[in-house]
Specification:
Elements (H helix, E strand, L loop, with lengths): L1 E5 L6 E8 L2 E10 L2 E8 L2 E8 L16 E7 L15 E7 L2
Antiparallel strand pairs: 1-7, 2-3, 3-4, 4-5, 6-7
């Protein structure tokens, strides 16, 4: 098992592309009044839509999708759920490889 940190900016809405386990993955991260949410796309197909982002709670919960891991937000200063204004600082997005 290995952990990769995904760089995020402290903005309310962002999209980024990353290569994980030799697959192109697009992440849409956005803030709503009820929390921070994320969409995950693999090979231009949306595989996760509107997943709530919570501290230490895996985002995808779907090993069958074949990504070989899951995304986990980590509060580096406590145990709060992430908010956009702390992204890239207090709140870190990681990809935890299961292989």
């Amino acid at each position: 098992m290995s952990v990769v940190q995904i760089p995020l900016a402290a903005t309310a809405s962002q999209t980024l592309n990353v290569v994980l386990n030799q697959q192109l993955v697009r992440l849409d991260v956005y803030q709503r009044s009820t929390g921070l949410y994320m969409n995950v796309w693999m090979s231009d197909v949306q595989v996760v839509a509107g997943a709530i982002c919570q501290n230490l709670n895996p985002v995808m919960h779907a090993a069958y999708l074949g990504l070989g891991g899951d995304f986990v937000f980590v509060d580096t200063q406590g145990s709060d759920d992430p908010a956009y204004d702390g992204l890239g600082g207090r709140y870190v997005l990681t990809f935890v490889r299961s292989q």
